[in-house]
User: Which sequence fits this backbone?
């Protein structure tokens, strides 16, 4: 029987890389995405549901379609809204919290029993931005720091029930073209491979909070805390 994975936000970027590696590893993947995947009908062992994870009722409705035990739940969906606190709109800040923090909470709420049934793994995709906040990042950094706390709380609640919870904090990712050299950054597929290795750890070991960094970041003249941000 195929293992089952559920991934939020897997139609592009880091989520797409994670999805592709799980498919290669033999998982049946359920994708919960705000927008549809191009040529989704051509992807074997992949079922997609369109849903904005910021909407609790829509998440509940979608999750009712997934009835099997879930071996791996990857909470990846997120948005980035940047701006000075004095200029950031209430709507952008609120929506950042709704997607980045409330979204994972909603999905876990409705799928946790299926993960428990499989004694599976839950991976929260975090960001170094949560650990190293920066100017213009109030909405993104604060919501990502909240994800870390949410993962820690869940880990404590379910660790004795056979469920492993991992917070995977990511450094710089090459998930879109910015018009400059980025080959040193983490590739989406590499994130997927890292997750496969993390969930393959011995049963008695829990790696609960992991920093995933590029091995050889681009040299910069910036030093100190400013450089650590996406290192």
Assistant:
């Amino acid at each position: 029987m195929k293992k089952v994975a559920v991934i939020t936000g897997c139609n592009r970027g880091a989520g797409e890389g994670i999805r592709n590696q799980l498919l290669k590893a033999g998982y049946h993947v359920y994708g919960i995405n705000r927008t549809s995947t191009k040529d989704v009908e051509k992807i074997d062992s992949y079922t997609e549901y369109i849903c904005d994870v910021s909407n609790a009722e829509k998440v509940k409705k979608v999750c009712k379609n997934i009835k099997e035990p879930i071996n791996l739940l990857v909470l990846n969906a997120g948005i980035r809204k940047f701006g000075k606190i004095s200029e950031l709109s209430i709507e952008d800040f609120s929506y950042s919290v709704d997607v980045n923090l409330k979204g994972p909470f909603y999905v876990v709420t409705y799928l946790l029993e299926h993960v428990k049934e499989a004694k599976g793994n839950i991976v929260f995709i975090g960001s170094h931005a949560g650990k190293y906040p920066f100017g213009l990042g109030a909405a993104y950094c604060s919501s990502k720091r909240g994800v870390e706390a949410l993962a820690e709380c869940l880990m404590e609640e379910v660790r004795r029930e056979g469920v492993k919870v991992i917070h995977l904090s990511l450094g710089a990712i090459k998930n879109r073209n910015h018009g400059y050299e980025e080959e040193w950054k983490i590739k989406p597929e590499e994130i997927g491979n890292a997750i496969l290795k993390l969930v393959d750890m011995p049963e008695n070991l829990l790696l609960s909070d992991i920093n995933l960094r590029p091995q050889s970041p681009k040299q910069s003249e910036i030093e100190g805390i400013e450089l650590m941000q996406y290192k």
Q: What stands out?
A: The chain is about 40% helix and 15% strand. Residues 127 and 173 are 10 Å apart (CA to CA). The mean pLDDT is 93. Residues 90-118 form the longest helix (29 residues).
